[in-house]
Task: structure prediction
Amino acid sequence: MDGGIFEGVKVLDISQDIAGSFCARLLGDYGADVIKVEPSSGADLRRMGPFFKDDPHPEKSLFFLIANLN
Result:
């Protein structure tokens, strides 16, 4: 598969929940260009555990990182 069935499609992800983030991830997995926009305080998912090495930090939320791989 070259770039995926959604190659050339642009997606603006302004979601704040797992469903929207995961949907944007799937679209990206199939070739869409996904742009994630978050509030200045960061998405709520960043504060959701589990955290890498049990260190509760917005940049270490495994839940956020898996849902937002793109």
